[in-house]
Amino acid sequence: xxxxxxxxxxxxxDQEVNGHPLVYLDNAxxxxxxxxxxxxxxxxxxxxxxxxxxxxxxxxxRATDAYEGARxxxxxxxxxxxxxxxxxxxxxxxxLNIVARSYARAVLREGDEIVLTPxxxxxxxxxxxxxAKATGAVLRYIPMQPDGRILLEDVEAxxxxxxxxxSVTHVSNVLGVVNPVKEIAALAHRRGAVMxxxxxxxxxxxxxxxxDIDCDFYAFSGHKMCGPTGIGVLYGKLDLLDRMxxxxxxGEMIEHVDYYDAxxxxxxxxxxxxxxxxxxxxxxxxxxxxxxxxxxxxIDRHSAALARYAYDRLSAIEGVTLYGPRERTGLVTFNLxxxxxxxxxxxxxxxxxxxxxxxxxxxxLMRKLGVTATARASFxxxxxxxxxxxxxxxxxKAKEFFGHAIG
Amino acid sequence: MQLDELYRRVIMDxxxxxxxxxxxxxxxxxxxxxNPSCGDRIQLQLKVEDGVVKLAKYTGEGCSIxxxxxxxxxxxxxxxxxxxxxGMADKFSAMMQGQPVEFEEYEDLExxxxxxxxxxxxxxxxxAWNALRKGIEAxxxx
Lengths: 407, 142
Fold this sequence. Notes:
The complex is a heterodimer. Chain A is an alpha/beta fold. Chain A folds into 2 domains: 3-26 and 296-406, Aspartate Aminotransferase, domain 1; 37-293, Aspartate Aminotransferase, domain 2 (3-Layer(aba) Sandwich), CATH 3.40.640. Chain A is built from 14 helices and 17 strands. Chain A has a 7-stranded mixed sheet, sandwiched between helices. A 4-stranded antiparallel sheet of chain A has the order 13-14-17-16, with helices on one face. In chain A, helix 4 packs parallel to helix 5 (126-135). In chain B, strand 1 (29-34) and strand 2 form a beta hairpin.
């Protein structure tokens, strides 16, 4: 895999920002799109678009084939047992909300437990807070090591027979740690709980096999893995999905309707009320083709190696504090002594380097780390060690600038 | 885009040597405000007598822009009537939209004019002023 060759396929990366060649290091927030994904969406709208599932005309069947073909592609990408286990959603957030609204509220009783980690993104936290409030269930947290790792003995000690749901991020969007979701799933199942995995930061970077993990639900977003915004996936085991109530009612998701009642289609269509995100699914399918051709194992190695390279490179700069263990993937989160991360991000932006600064939708984790905000550089398949060097040089410049400005 | 257009010396001076940073025990109006998109937060206390700001103090966490803006604002409004203070807030908003304004009574504020060229940072500069509006509103209601 050659990141520089791959980069040429991303039109947006070929530009100068503030007089410098763009270095895009905000991939954990959203990745850029290769030409072929953009082209697939344009081609769909120029040749094949119509509404799906209902029409008898040629375009309607082309659009339906494209949409359902994308579903099959996602099923293979995750190694799901059936394409009926793949629900298209707006993204990870709406996928997790389906589980927290439909599944959780049906099974949770007062005093039942939902188990999370302290590093969850707000999207894998607030839906459970609300489900707990609605049902009388309680939230419990697996303790986290000071460096951000989760130990299985702590998982075991946290789970009880009242645990009904365990929901854990696969890869932390702040710490970069890869959580042992397969082992956690086994422990959850031993207690009779279901395992939900937030895959927003793992699906872009590594081969995900939902049957090997044996999770009950897995959620991810298309836009973080070279696909368009507005499309994501909820994987769910079929026997669970088929027992769940829809969360949105309307067209497309029904089987039979009369004036006073209605019945639902089977999964996954019962969760896709209204005209679905057809072009988004087409774009996601093209992204999956692209990533599969590059090779998910290659991307995994690249993301992990680059994150460790950045960790080591930034560790060598005096005044840099890094958060999370060295063993990580995809990103580095850090602060520069005495300089607020917003100011760091602004200095970097003037150098053409895009990073993120803030709480990264993890306010409780920020408080646990003892900070209000951090800077984060996150990588993808088109980033190189040279990009990390530009980052390091710009950080040194920021230090000098603020050293002089303040000193 | 030049860094020193944004980070003027006056700004850095207020960041490093903040004026009116701290809390007061005296009878005052207290406002807490945060910027949910970035985590910056400010607590502003206003001591108002006969419609005049006698003292303004703040604590908080945030970037150089938000904290220096709070430092300047609390300095600038001291001794001003509430209407005068609100007038300065309006003028500050206009400056953030890139309009040429002058603060004869407190020229340091003009150093923040460069923020208007950094759209992502405008909300940093306005945090303290939004707290001021909220505080004056709360004070008038009570």
